């Protein structure tokens, strides 16, 4: 999955907006004001990443803690969330090594985890888009 496909998939989620609260270099995707993904171009100088991000677009996605560790074990391009709570977020490096369907599943999961923490009213307003 490349960054254009990632953007399109993220923005296709119900009531999703793109915002830039951290500056123009970091795209933040929110549903009803709650962040479920970020997308940015790695510069290679990110502390603790051993330069893995350099030249690649990267997404931060929310994840169940146990699944987060499992995905990191399976995919070299999934690392603990950069600038995020590393137990609950993964950084996915869009280097072509992860099948698009798997990245879409990770995005769907992040979206669902964020929606699950919303009020019942907000959850129901999103459900009408999914029926």
UniProtKB/TrEMBL annotation:
Pfam families: YjbR (PF04237). InterPro entries: YjbR, YjbR-like_sf, YjbR/MT2646/Rv2570-like. The keyword DNA-binding applies. One of its GO terms (molecular function) is DNA binding. Gene3D superfamilies: 3.90.1150.30. Keywords: DNA-binding. The keyword DNA repair does not apply. Signal peptide: none annotated. PANTHER family: CYTOPLASMIC PROTEIN, CYTOPLASMIC PROTEIN-RELATED. This is MmcQ/YjbR family DNA-binding protein. It comes from Thalassotalea euphylliae.
